[in-house]
Amino acid sequence: MGIFSSIVSAIFGHAKAAEPAKTGAEAAASAPAPAQAAAPAAAPVDVDAVLSGLAAGKGETLNWKESIVDLLKLLGLDSSLAARKQLATELGYTGDQNDSATMNVWLIKEVRRKLAENGGKVPAGL
Fewer CB under 10 Å: which end of the chain, C or N? Predict the structure, then answer.
């Protein structure tokens, strides 16, 4: 599994865990009618809410909205330069990976864009 896949799994997995379980009656009431074979698209995951919830439970302040390093730390993933270079390669970064500051800025923006493409609701200000 790639690093971006790990990011998606961590965020979307926490969102699923936070959803309240349906009772038997609620599950039956929300089941599609037999004529509705195709399931409706899942609701987008509120990325900001999930990450804010995770950050509230951390013992340290992390600037995950602006820092790829802090986002990776918040998700319990490897935030080393080697891991960020691997993520940059996965996401198609074409700049100089030795210019880590520029790469990091690109990475946080690209991760947010990719999360939105994969069913995440990412606020415009993020």
Answer: N
